[in-house]
């Protein structure tokens, strides 16, 4: 009896802790609510229900993993180790998070996709890539959710849209993510530009009014743990020369010019760049209206974040 009592007490505590964490998450002003909203969309759950009705169990597990990665306090009451949609255990059962198992499920899902079998080619237009994704059952399922959250037909919630983009690009093979992130429009084709905006999160995830300065974007990013980690990785993978020379010394960075900034542009760099999508680092920024003494550093940050020269 004492053993059973301890077991049920631990289950009850887990339920309380998870409900409490959800309330904290929803009320927090740190972007957690946005990720939680995407969890509800992907897993098709309600606040009151604890039964999973998601058609995409793998996607449900992946977004739960994303939630636990970005907000580690959830790791104590979320389970992502089983093969079924783990939202059934959201309010109770505790178990360890098994990233390898989720990765295997995701790879198996994408192995059924014809799109993932294609080798990356740099000359595909965004319209081509968009059509291929729509025609592919696995890709289209992910794209539909992302477009639902980021739809221009409803009031834009930038943080929620950014969370959906993070999930969208992290939930697909690197080859497919590359095709989408680096697609472009060669001709002045309106359909292609619309497809590009959809795939790249415009306008909801990247356009703020008024546009922030690039200095402000970096400073805000550094105050957020998730964004700071992604920025540090991006620096080390793409701009190793800059970080080796100046690290995080803004006074030193001001002395650099674009010509003195070789970019590695390798696969690790591309992956780090794509990982920035769905964070403050992808918000379009400006250097206008800044005092002259801040212009050089601002333009340097703008070059690092938004110049395509690294991947041309």
Automatic annotation (TrEMBL):
<dbReference type="Pfam" id="PF02351">
    <property type="entry name" value="GDNF"/>
</dbReference>
<dbReference type="GO" id="GO:0009897">
    <property type="term" value="C:external side of plasma membrane"/>
</dbReference>
<dbReference type="GO" id="GO:0038023">
    <property type="term" value="F:signaling receptor activity"/>
</dbReference>
<dbReference type="InterPro" id="IPR003438">
    <property type="entry name" value="GDNF_rcpt"/>
</dbReference>
<keyword id="KW-0325">Glycoprotein</keyword>
<keyword id="KW-1003">Cell membrane</keyword>
<dbReference type="GO" id="GO:0007399">
    <property type="term" value="P:nervous system development"/>
</dbReference>
<feature type="domain" description="GDNF/GAS1">
    <location>
        <begin position="214"/>
        <end position="310"/>
    </location>
</feature>
<feature type="domain" description="GDNF/GAS1">
    <location>
        <begin position="126"/>
        <end position="204"/>
    </location>
</feature>
<dbReference type="InterPro" id="IPR016017">
    <property type="entry name" value="GDNF/GAS1"/>
</dbReference>
<protein>
    <submittedName>
        <fullName>GFRAL protein</fullName>
    </submittedName>
</protein>
<dbReference type="InterPro" id="IPR037193">
    <property type="entry name" value="GDNF_alpha"/>
</dbReference>
<keyword id="KW-0675">Receptor</keyword>
<dbReference type="GO" id="GO:0007169">
    <property type="term" value="P:cell surface receptor protein tyrosine kinase signaling pathway"/>
</dbReference>
<keyword id="KW-0732">Signal</keyword>
<dbReference type="GO" id="GO:0043235">
    <property type="term" value="C:receptor complex"/>
</dbReference>
<keyword id="KW-0472">Membrane</keyword>
<comment type="similarity">
    <text>Belongs to the GDNFR family.</text>
</comment>
